[in-house]
Amino acid sequence: MAPYVDMGAWPTPSLKDLAAAGNLKSFTLAFVTSTGCKATWFNAYDPRTGWGREQIDALRAAGGDVKVSFGGASGTELGQACSTVDALFAEYDAVVKAYDLRYVDFDIEGTAVVDRAANDRRSAALARLQRAHPGLKVSLTLPVLPEGLTEDGVAVVRSARDAGVDLDLVNVMAMDYNRAGTDYGDNAVRAAQSTRDQLKALHPAKSDAALWKMTAVTPMLGENDDHGVFNQGDARQLVAFARQNHLGMLSFWEMTRDANACTGPLYKCTNVAQSPYEFSKLFAAYTG
């Protein structure tokens, strides 16, 4: 379990407090974007200064860890902003060194997912990054439909494979389908199954168990942007499915929304009846 934390929320979330209250150990920190071809935390802070490092150190001291996520729905991912593999590698490498990262995530959506040139640059830079940091794990987080990744999403995974990136996870954003009457629990399960089948086509030599371990699912808690709802029953359904198939990871968007347990703007509220950290505790039951 490594749910997303919007590090741009105000006040800045306390990772140690979120972990203790939600019965969690690890988080995905969102998002590093770009100002020109320079890494930045949501266009506000320079990762090279180690912004937030004390929070990460405190979480690690308590037995947890983080992955840093590059990209997201807002701002420009570095793969699009940097015109050369060398420049792109330098930015990724700086962030990995600043936080002594063992895991990095790349949330590729919007215009980024269709930018084949940027995706190939990123793939080449990530292969180089893994050579520079042996053991560094990499995940791709991509939009999904119940039928699986889009054609462009499959192309992102194929690009990484062909560049020699050792992908730990393909994490699908099981949210915002924009389909009336859709069941968000059923469709999270369908999306995972469909993505696993697509990964089989890309990696035919991998076993079924290895393909499930490569599959991760990230729903949006409560009300989605399309006004569909992922509720507590859906969370239980997804956790049961993950246990049955031993998925590589479950995550969700996003911790402060779960902590706030409120009705209001979707950037900070789930708009469903819940207690604080209720979803976190449901998802924490999944241990692989």
What would you say about this model in short?
The protein is α/β, with parallel strands linked by helices and 288 residues long.
Shape: globular
- Fraction of residues in β-strands: 15-25%
Biggest sheet features: 10 strands, mixed
Can you give the mean pLDDT?
Answer: 97
Strand runs, count: 12
Helical region count? Answer: 11
Instruction: Output the radius of gyration.
Output: 18 Å
**Could you say which structural class the secondary elements and strand pairing correspond to?**
alpha/beta
Helix content: 40-55%
Uncertain stretches? none
Question: N-to-C SSE series?
Answer: EHEEHEHHEHEEHEHHEEEHEHH
End-to-end distance = 9 Å
Organism: Kitasatospora camelliae
Protein name: Chitinase
Structure description:
The chain is α/β, with parallel strands linked by helices and 288 residues long. It has helices at 15-22, 53-61, 78-81, 85-99, 116-132, 151-163, 184-202, 208-213, 232-245, 255-260, 278-284; strands at residues 4-6, 26-34, 39-41, 65-71, 103-107, 137-145, 148-149, 167-174, 215-219, 222-223, 229-230, 249-250. Strands 1, 2, 3, 4, 5, 6, 7, 8, 9 and 12 form a ten-stranded mixed β-sheet that branches. The chain has a two-stranded antiparallel ribbon with strand order 10-11. Strand 5, helix 5 and strand 6 form a beta-alpha-beta unit. The model has no long low-confidence stretch (mean pLDDT 97). It comes from Kitasatospora camelliae. This is Chitinase.
